Every structure is written in C-alpha cells, then in structure tokens.
Amino acid sequence: MAKHSPVTGRYVTIDVDGKEYKVFYLHNGKGQPLICQHTAGCHNHQWRGLLEDEEITENYNVIAYDLPRHGKSDPPHNTEWWKEEYKLTADHFCNFIVKLCDALELKDPIFMGSSFGGNVALQLALRHPDRFKAVIPVEAADYAPGFYLDWWHHPHANAAQVCGSGVWDLMAPQSPEMDRWLTWHYYTQGSEAFKGDLYFYSVDHDLRDELRNIDGRRCPVIMMTGTYDYLTPPEATENTARQIRGGVYIEMTDIGHFPMSENHDVFRVYLKEALRIIRERTDNN
Amino acid sequence: MKQDISSWAAKYESLTNSDETIAAMAKYYTCVFMFDMEQCKVIIEMHDGKVKSINTDPGPLDAYDFALRASAVSWREFSQPVPRPMFHGIWAASFREDLKIEGNHLILMKNLRNFTVQFELLRKSGVPV
Fold this sequence. Notes:
The complex is a heterodimer of chains A (about 280) and B (about 130). Chain A has about 280 residues and is of the alpha/beta class. Chain A is built from ten helices and eight strands. In chain A, helix 5 packs antiparallel against helix 6. Chain B is of the alpha+beta class and about 130 residues long. Chain B has one domain: 2-Layer Sandwich (Nonspecific Lipid-transfer Protein, Chain A). Chain B has a five-stranded mixed sheet.
C-alpha cells in the first residue's frame, strides 16, 4: 500500500502586471483559508510540517505556493526575463498575492509569511486590509536593511552553498539537525532568486513612516519572531507591532528565522496561539 | 578552566579531521584563516578538508586569507554547547555582536559550507581563552 501524503499540488496561471505566471501550490485541509508565503530564495516545502499538521488542517485550508522563480513556479513565460536583473518590488509582490487569492477564489484568507513573506504581510495589511481576514507576519519588521548582498550570486563562489550556509545561523542551534539541513538544502536550490527577493526585503520594503496607517482592528496583525533571529531580532518585531493599532507581538523562544521549516513542532505552538487570537478578534465580524 | 593552547589546537584538529560533515565535501576545502580571540591568536591552515597546521604563536608577517576577530568573552560564548542568541554563528555575531570578519571575504564565501561546520566544532573543543 503506497504511503500517500494528503497534500496535493496544482498549477494555476495568473496575469500580474502584464506578466504571465504559472504558479505551483500545495494544499491540504478544509475550512478557513490560510495562505502561506515561503522565505526569500526558498520554496513551499518550508511549510511541509504545517501542510501535514492534522490538528490545524482539520479547520484550516492550508495553501503554500511557490512565488514565481522559486520551486516549481517558473519565471514569467511571456517575457524575456533573462535579459534583466530580477528585483522584486513591494508593488509587484502585493499585486501577485492578491491576484493569486482571487484566482483561487479564497474568501477572507489569513495570510502568513516568514521573513520577506512577513514583511509583505505588513504591506498587505496596509494596502489591502479588507481583502484579508488577518495577517501573520513571521520574523518581520517595518524595515530590514543589510541583506541585499552581492555574495548571494557572486560568480566566483558557489552561490548555492553561500545561500545555504549564509542563512545557516539564522536558525537556532536547538532546532533538529535534520530540519536545519533540509532548510539548507532548500536554500541551495534558490540562489538565482535570493538576491532579487532581498531587494524587496532590505531595500524596497520600508514602512517606518507607514505603521500608523495600518489598522490592526480592521485587519488583525499578529507578529511572531524567534529569539535566535539575528536579521529581524525580537526587539525589531516588537517595536513594529507596538506602532500598529491593535498589533500583537508573540516572542518565540529557542527558534530562529525559519520557524516553520527548522522546527515545526515548536512553531505550531505559537501559531495556534496566533490563530486563537485571530478567531477571538474576528468571530463577531 | 582555561585550556592550554597546544591542547586546544590538538583537540580542534582532531575534531575537524574526524568530522563526517566536512569529510562529505572535503575536496577543495583549502584556505588559511585566523581566529583572533583577543588574548591569543591562531592561524589554521586547511588543505582538502584536513587541518594541515595550526600556528598557535603567529608572527606579525604570518599570512592568512581571512580573520575572525572578537573579544575573549565572545569566543567563550561561541564555544558553549548551546550558544546564546546572537553568539550562535559568524553571521549572527557579526551583525549583532563584536565579531569582525576581515581579509579576503571571497575566500570565506568559497568555503562557507565547510567553514560554518568547522566553526561550530568550537562547541565541542571549547576555546583557549
């Protein structure tokens, strides 16, 4: 008897700002849509633990997609993308997510993302508060400079290993060795996109003067950061959440910047609390 | 208790040379780096994944490709079995603590996978400061 996972994958084609993307996504579960963005330079396997989490998928329809240029989502098929440097912008990132949610006909989805996915969650709360039931920015902050580096695709080094090992100590030493090496493995696969993703993360994303315009009562914002995250340290997330009306900050002990892929068993404890808060704040809406 | 530097060097060499993760991709892991621990300095020469030499008394003209410099306090934190946040790697400590990475960064990046593994062996060897 074959040991099939309940997780299934599909492709959906969407047009975003004139670019045609055939987007790959994994999904499992039923009920409230929970759409998940992987971290920069990575892909949707980062959410493998959540996708197979029986307790959460009992009530949540978990969808984890590959952003174009990552995993099984190709670069756009209708443009000569190889003739220009890839630099992800906040505008395009947000437009993509809304278009994908529309194509999948997701009603009031909760959006969750980590790292650059967490930063775009803040952008969505600012730009599209009525399109999402709530957002869960993980390892996010209003501004995250310093990681838009040439080293990620320097032609004289092994870019795959630089990306894999360059993010190694974004993870906590307590996280299981297997999960940390799997995360390393994912990162070796995404080196061509990593730097362009980080253009959004460290350059184009800057909400320092916009946090007051995010209304966490209209679109709840539940932020979570691990204590071993040196890139977006806990104080950066806490400081961000404090400036958002109704913003919530949850500190995750003994975990790092990739909580869902480095240690799902720890991450899920905090995620369940975030989902409980969202239910509490939105059940009467 | 502070370790004798020669004993430390022998232990670190042995741990490196017997590490299976380094051995799995040892070929071409060849570079020379300095650990500047404030109270002492060592220069470690790697060749194809093995320690060729550890110079525990480097002179002013002894060469290396890149150096990691931090306070003795930081090196003691790096060597804890489970380091505290921000002392758990060279990126974390250079972004948030007093670690300075100097010299030819490209050589560090060329060897980053194995160097990262080898740096974490300090959690088993301890440090001589």
